[in-house]
Design goal:
Distance between the termini: 86 Å
Strand content: under 5%
Helix content: over 70%
Order of helices and strands: HHHHHHHHHH
Number of domains: 1
Shape: globular
Number of strands: 0
């Protein structure tokens, strides 16, 4: 029997392996996994909430249009329908239709399984999504200028800023996709999704606030003006964008502590989002269907 020489040892490699399995590194990896799971949980809740919003828009505005009851739009959307203003009415109708398509397309764009299994579909849907965002943003600005909107000047400025951010984010997402900078494209696409979702965030945020305070607080429901509505008009997209930046920083360069803190924040916001969706569904959407 030929004797077998002992396997050589490499101290540096052993040290590297041991270091990679240190408690701190293990905790950081687990915290990273928890962070991803919390983000996925929020997305699932948001997706369900946005699909409920689409069902409401189609069920209320779409059904009224099919039945020829165009004036019913004004019950929720002040000056949504103006007799004799065909061009303006078409802009509003297109805005509502694009809102539904954009929600569905945006959710498909951010679904990992769709990107992996049908990359061509992802690319073409993405192009259509960016085009619809541009049309809806410009249409929203047009409606503010020609038909106005409820609320005071601060709310109109907030809507205008939201539309401009949507256009800027759409351009950045397209530019990086064309250059095959996929990670940067993904980040700008996430920012775009949150900016586009501003209208939805406003509704669930408002309903959460009303339920939490057991009635309107910080604003006059008759004039739809007040400090809280001014805050919410900007927070509807700036706050989600700020949370996204915290998430990306914790994911990229954060240690275990930063990732755990970001996970806790996302978990809390998931519960708040779910509560807001529930309140909006029961108090705003279902009663009008």
């Amino acid at each position: 029997m030929i004797p077998t020489a002992p396997a050589p040892t490499y101290p540096d490699a052993d040290i590297a392996v041991a270091a990679s399995r240190s408690p701190a590194d293990t905790l950081s990896r687990k915290a990273g996994t928890a962070l991803k799971l919390s983000a996925s949980a929020w997305f699932v809740v948001a997706a369900l909430g946005q699909l409920l919003f689409v069902a409401y828009v189609l069920g209320y505005y779409g059904r009224a249009a099919l039945q020829g009851r165009w004036q019913a739009w004004n019950g929720v959307f002040p000056r949504g329908y103006v007799a004799g203003d065909t061009a303006g009415n078409l802009v509003v109708a297109a805005h509502l239709g694009f809102a539904c398509l954009i929600v569905v397309a945006g959710l498909l764009q951010l679904t990992p399984a769709v990107r992996r299994r049908w990359p061509a579909f992802h690319r073409w849907t993405g192009r259509a999504y960016l085009a619809m965002v541009a049309v809806m943003s410009l249409g929203g600005l047009s409606m503010i200028l020609t038909r106005g909107s409820v609320g005071d000047l601060s709310q109109k400025l907030a809507i205008g800023l939201n539309a401009l951010l949507m256009l800027a984010f759409a351009y950045q997402a397209y530019r990086h996709a064309r250059a095959r900078r996929i990670d940067l494209h993904r980040r700008w696409a996430l920012r775009l999704f949150l900016a586009v979702s501003g209208v939805w965030f406003f509704r669930i945020g408002l309903m959460f606030w009303i339920v939490a305070n057991q009635g309107p607080a910080g604003f006059d429901p008759a004039s739809f003006r007040g400090p809280f509505l001014t805050f919410l008009a900007f927070a509807q997209y700036l706050l989600p964008l700020a949370v996204l930046e915290l998430y990306l920083r914790a994911q990229d360069r954060g240690g275990a502590g930063a990732r755990i803190a970001a996970t806790a924040l996302l978990s809390m916001l998931t519960l708040v989002t779910a509560a807001g969706v529930g309140a909006a569904t029961m108090l705003m959407w279902l009663p009008r269907l």
